[in-house]
Amino acid sequence: MKIVAKTDKGMVRESNQDAYAVGELPGEVAWAVVCDGMGGAAGGNIASALAVKVISDKITSCYNEKMKDSSIRNLLDSAITAANIEVFDMAVEQPDLSGMGTTVVCAIVRDGSVYIAHAGDSRAYIAENGCVRQITTDHSVVQDLVDKGQITAEEAEHHPNKNLITRAVGVDKRIEIDFDQLDFGDKSTLILCTDGLSNFVSTSELLSDIEDGQYYAFADRLVKRANKNGGGDNITVVAVSK
Q1: What's the pLDDT score for residue 159?
Q2: What are phi and psi of 137, to 5 degrees?
Q3: Dist CA 68 CA 45 (whole Å)
């Protein structure tokens, strides 16, 4: 398993409120978590960093090679739920952090399968056989409008409320988490990213930057591409390849 990652504040923001962590587990298993914080100059940084730490600690301490598919799902669900509690409680205890929260997308890759959990608009893509598929569905106001048929997917790309999300870690006592389990074959690449990438890099551009198979350059190329296309937000990219 090959893992590369990069984060960058972009061309406009003064600070980087994204956070990520990656790692490997016994049995050629890879894991990754990406968060995009929100809630003021300090709050976003704190929410994303705390969520990444809690989720990372949960994955590395609780995973074992004998886990069934359902147990991996429960592990990711409980990790995000634990992060939600920690971020929410901190925001309640410290009034200056009120309203902080973070998106999350995390994944475990093993034995030809990928397990993905997310809340918010940070995304997971899978590239294979010359195609890129968006796996996650944004939890956002604009995506809700698309789902209801009130606007088209093309109109959503430039909608003024594109940044308004409907789910995030830490904003409520409870959080609803979406989960996906998919096949992950040889020569497949999983991309986890914040909206600083997805809002500035098209899927065709994403594919062109990774189709040569030089996995060690994937994250760096995509961050550079987002910055070249405006870099209007913090950018974080994790790429996991077989």
Answers
A1: 85
A2: -110, 125
A3: 34
| Secondary structure E strands in the chain | 2-8, 18-25, 29-38, 101-110, 113-119, 123-128, 131-134, 178-183, 189-193, 235-241
For 209-239, the DSSP string reads HHTT--GGGHHHHHHHHHHHTT--S-EEEEE
For the chain, helix (H) and strand (E) counts, in that order, are 7, 10
Q: Is the dihedral of CA 91, 96, 98, 104 positive or negative?
A: negative
Residue 75 to residue 55: CA distance in whole angstroms: 9
The order of strands in the sheet holding 178-183 is 18-25, 29-38, 101-110, 113-119, 178-183
pLDDT digits (tens, 9 = 90+) for 174-200: 999 999 999 999 999 999 999 999 999
Measured distance CA(44)–CA(41) in Å, rounded: 6
In the chain, the amino acid numbered 47 is A
**Structure confidence by residue, pLDDT tens digits, 3-52:** 999 999 999 999 999 999 999 999 999 999 999 999 865 699 999 999 99
Q: What is the C-alpha to C-alpha distance for residues 195 and 233, in angstroms, rounded to an integer?
A: 8
Determine contact, residues 119/34, Cβ cutoff 8 Å: no
Six-digit token string for 25:
């587990």
pTM of the prediction?
0.95
d(CA 48, CA 51): 5
Name the amino acid, one letter, at 59.
I
Question: From CA 47, how far away is CA 170, in angstroms rounded?
Answer: 8
